[in-house]
Amino acid sequence: MRFGGHESFAVREGWLARGLELLSEAPEQLTHQYSEDYLGVGRNMAKSIRHWLHATGLSEGSGSPIDPLKPTALGELVRRFDPHFLDLGTWWMLHINLVLRPQQAYSWTWFFNQWAIPRFERGPCIESLKRYAAVNLGRSPSPKTIERDVATLLQSYARSVPPRRDDPEDSSDSPFQDLGLLSHFPSTGAYRLNFGPKAVPSTIFGYALAAQQEVAAREDLSISELERGVSSPGRLFLLRGDDIYDLLTSYESQDAGRFAVRSQAGERGLRLGRIASPEEWASIHYRESEVPQHV
Q: What's the pTM?
């Protein structure tokens, strides 16, 4: 289980596009001693870009001669269909991967599965993760490491309310903020989890289910499981049960054969047909997307 690795930098605009381009065309430069020169950023930022490529599931391999660094299947799809990371669906998939990969981003898995206080401040959130890690990991990382992880996570997702008057030259905001999952109120220091309806495409919902093998193997899933299960759509997208049901009924009417809403013994749920792999869902998403393709 990993904490840190991001050098206290949230993903910034253009970082993953630049990193994935280098990974696809000259991967040796990404692991070069002076990779920051090829990426056009500072040394610690270059380390952060490599971390985020790996943690979001865009890259694999250690960079050694026997295990070269290369794009994953998802990385290849993003490079082909959304090289500039303009499609919000790309960011949803990267978010899903972060939450599902505790070996790369343990704090993300914990936050979206265990932290359920809708309105909170940073301090109690940090203390809760410290306690959880101490009980469940045996050997907990240093308090400073956990503090940096939580700070980076909140910086990644939290959009200021009211909006800041940004400097047009400032690119420090993370594109993950566009998912609308978290708000920050600078006047009080409080954060708010934004539970409620979201325009999650059916292909992204399918990706979230397919990314979990134990879920993908099921034929029927109840709304309560989809809302509260570990790394379920309800937790990944901060949806309540009624929000999920409304999404599923819209999918059923629009996407013939992909999703079927069922009701049995008074309990609403989802009946799955043949569920595609995450990469298949990603490919379907891009082929149906309006983002210009790069072939």
A: 0.93
Which residues, 6+ apart, have CB-to-CB distance to 90 below 8 Å? 78, 82
CB contact at 8 A, 159 and 177:
yes
Q: Is 148 left (phi over 0), alpha (psi -120 to 50) or beta?
A: alpha
For 73, the enclosing helix (H) or strand (E) is helix 73-81
Rounded distance between C-alpha atoms, residue 47 and residue 81, angstroms? 26
Provide the domain limits for residue 279: 202-288
Both 179 and 38 in one domain: the answer is yes
Q: Write out pLDDT tens, residues 242-290.
A: 999 999 999 988 775 778 888 766 788 888 776 789 999 999 999 988 6
Task: Answer for the pair 105, 55: CB distance below 8 angstroms, yes or no.
Answer: yes
Choosing from 193, 217, 250, the residue where a domain stops is 193
Do residues 131 and 71 both lie within one domain? Answer: yes
DSSP 187-218: TTTEEEE--S-----HHHHHHHHHTSHHHHT-
Q: Are 147 and 217 contained in the same domain?
A: no
Q: Residue 216's pLDDT band (boundaries 50, 70, 90)? A: low
Instruction: Tell whether 218 and 178 lie within a shared domain.
Output: no
Q: Are residues 44 and 141 in the same domain?
A: yes
pLDDT digits (tens, 9 = 90+) for 26-48: 888 888 888 888 898 999 999 99
Domain end, chosen from 152, 169, 193, is at 193
